[in-house]
Amino acid sequence: xxxxxxxxxxxxxxxxxxxxxxxxxxxxxxxxxxxxxxxxxxxxxxxxxxxxxxxxxxxxxxxxxxxxxxxxxxxxxxxxxxxxxxxxxxxxxxxxxxxxxxxxxxxxxxxxxxxxxxxxxxxxxxxxxxxxxxxxxxxxxxxxxxxxxxxxxxxxxxxxxxxxxxxxxxxxxxxxxxxxxxxxxxxxxxxxxxxxxxxxxxxxxxxxxxxxxxxxxxxxxxxxxxxxxxxxxxxxxxxxxxxxxxxxxxxxxxxxxxxxxxxxxxxxxxxxxxxxxxxxxxxxxxxxxxxxxxxxxxxxxxxxxxxxxxxxxxxxxxxxxxxxxxxxxxxxxxxxxxxxxxxxxxxxxxxxxxxxxxxxxxxxxxxxxxxxxxxxxxxxxxxxxxxxxxxxxxxxxxxxxxxxxxxxxxxxxxxxxxxxxxxxxxxxxxxxxxxxxxxxxxx
Length: 443
What we know:
- The protein is an alpha/beta fold.
- It contains 17 helices and 14 strands.
- The longest helix is centred in the N-terminal third of the chain and has 19 residues, at 82-100.
């Protein structure tokens, strides 16, 4: 059901050589880019008409308008299962607690007497958020995108999610209900690359969507490719690929827990990655044995879980020691990393590369997906070595405000002029000389 990679016996290679030994899903965004380019440009030129046409082509629905009526949001919330509503409200509450603490405050540094640099944090003006609606429905992604944007102080928030044939061309009602709970009333029935293009270019008319400064949220390869296409025109969070879990475990780990957690990510998608890194062959055997009955007892077996576990992106990786295991998980840079070892907190503290780290047997990835308070929009495909998950900071821009008096400028003018001339940019220096009668002040 799942393959093994045995890295025992020899010294582990470094850097890219080690990464090349590890499992990873194939996710060719560059190839998808050529397919989404004409879709994006069609939305640019035809706007809402193109969105309606793509809804028919890709989602099998005939839309009269793309924007979801506010009444539909209210109805979805009124008809939401009370237990689901309570769970969403708790998810929102916990996410607000965590994300509110992330907000940075303005700070002024006195560099010299009379010379200060202030850094202020300004939210982007408008964001377009994307909530997937393909194999599964993700109201949790609505929470994870909206809450940090709101806590950052973004004034204009719009959300897009694919239209659903079984729901009359509207996004899934649980998505709509989550939007209503969060106070987001600008929602569009649009999916895939065309939704990203709608946010990037904007559309006109009474049903139109004003352009956004930034687009965030997970999606399929077409969404990722559209984000790449618009990078530079709009801000993006990340080109999210297939979801991943890595588990670093030793002989103290419970194989029932480990197997359940691997399966929990495998049920997302046939390209989902489930990786166990362990120095215990006995645990590897026990987990492999435990997978079969647990897989048989759940849903989505043939179309998602089995292909995900059997795919080349998933494996049990055997190492000589937890020290080697730590090197492996750092090289892998998992979206989600669980530490199920003795003294798990100490090992977690040494991890450098992961989207989010889950410590010990009582902090499974599923908790982070919904109600830990952390954010589940995280870097995939090894991008955790250089990128972070979605947070309040994602929606803020740091702006430096430079304020110098005449005396403070005079004191440093000779250094500025010297550096400008060293770079053969004399007009830079002249901009200061002009303020002092074209003479360099004596320090």
